[in-house]
């Protein structure tokens, strides 16, 4: 089982990034993005079901969009209007499986 996340980087406030996570060896069922900021607990950002139902944390609702491409076993997280408080390591998740994370830094 492997969840390979990519797409992190450094952006200015108000900028955008798109994260990708390619899953292999999994059922590619309910997929989720979590994040962990320095000194804080890991928190759920968004999840998407097999049929495309989505759920977002209140802090990202209206700014982030989770989507999936089942043909590519890939889940995406489009992040718009990024703010410094979005700075964190973002992790791809399916059930008990975790990717290594990709760092997003939002700073002027």
Structure report:
There is one protein chain. The chain has strands at 2-6, 9-11, 17-24, 31-36, 43-48, 54-56, 64-69, 74-79, 88-94, 97-98, 102-106. It is mostly beta strands. Strands 2, 4, 5, 6, 9, 10 and 11 form a seven-stranded mixed β-sheet that branches. It starts with a strand and ends with a strand.
In short, what is this structure?
By secondary structure, the chain is mainly β. The chain is 0% helix and 53% strand.
Name the features.
108 residues, globular, mainly beta, seven-stranded mixed β-sheet, 0% helix, four-stranded antiparallel β-sheet, single chain
How are the SSEs placed, and which strands pair?
Blueprint lengths: L1 E5 L2 E3 L5 E8 L6 E6 L6 E6 L5 E3 L7 E6 L4 E6 L8 E7 L2 E2 L3 E5 L2
Parallel strand pairs: 2-11
Antiparallel strand pairs: 1-3, 3-8, 4-5, 4-9, 5-6, 7-8, 9-10, 9-11
The Cα radius of gyration reads: 13 Å
The largest β sheet comes out as: 7 strands, mixed
The shape is globular
Segments where pLDDT lies below 50 for 5+ residues?
none
On the 0 to 100 scale, the average pLDDT is 96
Structural class: mainly beta
What is the helix content? Answer: under 10%
